[in-house]
Specification:
alpha/beta; 5 strands
Length: 164
């Protein structure tokens, strides 16, 4: 199964594509989509949409896994990130790819085994599980790979019980 993991946003969108076959992970690609701060917001969202569509068309994932948002501080940032997330969801729907959403707690639990794990613990486990030489940067990319790993583990568990 090829999984596209997404850490959503509008300034930086983390992208991680993995293959999960027979309990083994293979990294296909990881990158980021960035937009310019000086661009108007609709242009930034369009760039996210266009580039994500290109990635989907090139790598043809079987599933998209995306992180749900969790914010407690800046409402304006939360709204903007939510709009960026909506663009990512739309890309999945337009391309008829099933989209699965995971909370930060679910991702940490699936990757580290502890839902309250620190960010650096998640990044270290991503590096180990995916046999990478170093932790991918920026953090958004490592987070996207973690979301993909989460889906691989969640899909495996749920498919045993008739889910997905």
């Amino acid at each position: 199964m090829r999984i596209l993991g997404i850490d959503p946003g509008y300034a930086i969108v983390g992208i991680g594509i993995i293959e999960y076959v027979g309990n083994k992970f293979k990294v296909v690609e990881y990158t980021k989509i960035t937009t310019e701060a000086h661009s108007d917001f609709p242009t930034r969202l369009k760039k996210v949409f266009d580039e994500l569509n290109c990635i989907i068309n090139e790598y043809k994932p079987d599933a998209i896994a995306i992180e749900e948002l969790f914010f407690n501080n800046n409402a304006k940032t939360a709204i903007n990130v939510g709009q960026g997330r909506g663009v990512c969801l739309l890309c999945g729907a337009i391309n008829n790819i099933p989209v699965f959403e995971y909370t930060p707690l679910q991702i940490k639990q699936a990757v580290v085994g502890y839902g309250r794990a620190e960010k650096n613990q998640v990044q270290q486990m991503v590096k180990i599980l995916l046999n990478l030489e170093k932790i991918p940067k920026p953090d958004d990319v490592a987070d996207a790979l973690a979301v993909a790993v989460c889906h691989a583990h969640s899909y495996k568990v749920n498919s045993k019980f008739g889910g997905f």
